[in-house]
Amino acid sequence: MLVKTYGSTLVGIHAVTITVEVSIDIGVQFFMVGLPDSAVRESHQRIEAALRQNGHKIPGKKIVINMAPADLKKEGSSYDLTLAMGILAASEQINKDKVGDYLIMGELSLDGSLLPVKGALPIAIEASRKGFKGFILPYQNAREAAIVNDIQVFGAHNIREVIGFFNGENSLEEIKMNAVDEFAASLNEYEFDFSDVKGQENIKRSLEVAAAGGHNIILIGPPGSGKTMLAKRLPSILPPLTMNESMEATKIHSVAGKMPRNKALISVRPFRAPHHTISDVIVIFVVVYVNSVNN
Q: Measured between alpha carbons, how far is 237 from 230 in angstroms, rounded to an integer?
């Protein structure tokens, strides 16, 4: 039997839909093709252990899995749940009728619980653009993905909940977010505020001028004189992010796996304090990233 499930891969800060085709036939071999990396290939062991812990199994037959488009490299462990649902549907252990309606992502632990994935926001945007009925992913990422309001987002804690959902035995919790309200609620939640600085009147005036005019500034002084302390408070006197800037910053943090816990949007301007020993490449990357958000 041939069944198709759907996941997504990240190209920069954008997502591309991946079609996972699972064919089960007579035989005893397991093949996975479509440029999967080592982490994707290792999903076989994670899926097998997770299914056994939850009363299911990988059938002892010939299984061929193709991840299309085959010329695009697939990386990471986020496809575990996508592959597992394809195997279960193709082996008729779950109802296959609804599997193709949802984009499914999630990393499996050996007991079947779901671990968070990177890039939930750009993947949700891609799922909405492709017209999927919903997006099933780990509960930890659900609020971030639910910022995209024109698609149903379902957060799952483990593979058993997802299996029950497709078999009609239980429902998954649909996560709903209001992007505008979420953005407005945390717009001024700065970790470091410029008003905390006591003294340093000359440098504070210089930073205010730089912030008002959009100028660069260089801080020179001995260790402990307050250069980093002042610089990390500069975002609090910059104009607040727009909604589009916030979405762009959130995409970048999401893809990098740097989203703060329990936050759905990056709503304040980013600050980075790289060490002076970093390479030129990283300096350029940090400058381009911060400028792309702040400008």
A: 11
